[in-house]
Amino acid sequence: MFLAVTEEAKELTINSSRKGLHGTSRPATRVTLSFPEEPCASWVIADSVGNNGHLMNVIVCVKQIPDPAAPGALDAGTNTLKRDGKLVIDDSDMYGVEMALQLVDAAGGGEVNLVSMAPNSETSGMRTALAMGAAKGVLVSDPALQGSDALTTAKILAAAVQKLGGADLIIAATESSDGYTGTVPEQMAEVLGLPSVTFAKKVAVDSGTLKVDRQTESGYDEVTCPMPAVISVTAGVVEPRYPSFKGIMAAKNKPIDEVKASDLGVTPVGWEGAGQKISGVAQAEARQAGEIIEDDGEAFGKIVGFLENLKVI
Ligand SMILES: Cc1cc2nc3c(=O)[nH]c(=O)nc-3n(C[C@H](O)[C@H](O)[C@H](O)COP(=O)(O)OP(=O)(O)OC[C@H]3O[C@@H](n4cnc5c(N)ncnc54)[C@H](O)[C@@H]3O)c2cc1C
User: Fold this and answer.
1) Gap between the Cα atoms of 87 and 66, Å rounded
2) 76-118 pLDDT tens trace
3) Ligand 1 atom 21: the closest Cα is on which residue?
4) How far apart are CA 81 and CA 86, in angstroms?
5) Which of 83, 118, 212, 248 could form a disulfide with 122 if both were Cys (CB 3.0 to 4.6 A apart)?
6) Predicted TM-score of the model (pTM)
7) Distance from the CA of 201 to the center of ligand 1, in angstroms?
8) The CATH number of 53-271 is which of 1.20.1250.20, 1.20.140.150, 3.40.50.620, 3.40.50.150?
9) Residue boundaries of the structural domains of the chain
10) CA of 280 to the centre of ligand 1 (A)
11) 56 CA distance to ligand 1 centroid (A)?
12) What is the pLDDT of residues 153-174, one digit of tens each?
């Protein structure tokens, strides 16, 4: 932005409302500038926000799951996890929330919002994310959604994203800790018609372009992607903050808009219409006991041999 100022001007306050990266409305900002003693014909005014002058709105998918510390149980009739007790935020999504907060900080402004689909009007997990610093959320809770498979979940979350007015970036975890098909983020991207980058282990935004280090089996790929986009982040992408006491208190009053599938224009397909079927469940194999190597002075050789066998070295 260029401004011409007169010789008399000493200070200038600009009130401006903004458009986000993709046309979404952003809060108004006020920038106050003090001019140097020596006036000049014009100043180039650097915007008060990063990301080349754009604010950043991010929506994070927060799955609320039964507390992993408590023994889980399956519904014998449907083979799905029982979710009738208190739910907590899936640890996998703490990374997405933290990443979103850091990206908004780096941009110099914007908002982190949440979407979640969970039974029984459960918001405990969302409140944790709000306590970390997210602003508001949309919860889709509807008995009609029982039996929803991953695709229906993706359609619901995509519609919730649209209800929030969209965002510059939508973040999910690569897979949840309880159901983990690891397919919801990519299906959401398809439903929303957005590009998708998976397995993000490092994320930055530069001049409105997403830059991602994408984890691969042999290292990582450097991926650039236009925004808006949907990304899935790996655990360890950032270190999630602990909610502060002030954050926890503030989260109690932050808005969560609870809606039903019909409010979003999505028709639940239930068990009958699900594209996936749970054909059976079996007890996971008990873990084999590890090998204990006593150090007789030559233990290092045995360990090297063991690792070579695994082709780790
Ligand atoms: C036939 C069938 C019926 C099912 N019926 C039920 C049922 O009645 N009740 C039930 O609870 N589950 C049910 N499930 C499981 C449910 O469909 C999946 O848990 C859900 O689709 C999410 O898939 P996922 O955990 O595999 O997600 P993944 O693809 O592993 O998740 C990746 C990421 O997407 C985001 N995400 C995923 N789900 C949610 C969510 N709900 N809210 C916010 N973010 C999310 C998170 O960031 C998550 O880490 C059913 C599954 C099948 C196959």
Assistant:
1) 5
2) 888 888 888 889 999 999 999 999 999 999 999 999 999 999 9
3) 150
4) 13
5) 118
6) 0.80
7) 22
8) 3.40.50.620
9) 2-48, 53-271
10) 17
11) 27
12) 999 999 999 999 999 999 999 9
